[in-house]
Amino acid sequence: MSETRSGALPLTGGCNCGAVRFEVRAPFETAGYCHCVRCQRRSGCASSPGGMVSAAQFAVVAGADVVATWRPEGGKPKSFCARCGGHLFSGDPHGGAEETIGVRLGALDGDPGIRPQWHQWVASAPAWEPLPDDGLPRFDGPRPR
């Protein structure tokens, strides 16, 4: 697995078992923490950090046949490795330039070149994990676009 230098493009990443590999071919537009119940249950954590990029700048380069996708009612598709369960991205990578992909920062090989800039769905944050006093903007629901 190659190590990405501080935001050098393309950014590479993949799942825990290595079956799925992807590339992010442009800098992330923004990044933040999602505290929604879906992210909590998918990750087993209080929040999920993700970076946003246009679908046109994202590609699964290996293992597309083992990418499984859950399509929740009223939400973006959530994709993961069907072999190891590693969370990879949300959104439809074939959705065109207007589609935004939310890449799980923990699935990247190295430094994403961006730091989380906001918290969204803080109304759903669990009581057992207080939100950090990090000065980032907080949104009770989805972050305004």
Automatic annotation (TrEMBL):
Residues 126-145 are annotated as: Disordered. Gene3D superfamilies: glutathione-dependent formaldehyde- activating enzyme (gfa). It holds the Pfam family GFA. It comes from Conexibacter arvalis. One of its GO terms (molecular function) is metal ion binding. Belongs to the Gfa family. InterPro entries: CENP-V/GFA (IPR006913), Mss4-like_sf (IPR011057). The lineage of its organism: Bacteria, Bacillati, Actinomycetota, Thermoleophilia, Solirubrobacterales. Residues 11-119 form the CENP-V/GFA domain. Residues 135-145 have a biased composition (Basic and acidic residues). This is CENP-V/GFA domain-containing protein. Keywords: Lyase, Metal-binding, Zinc.
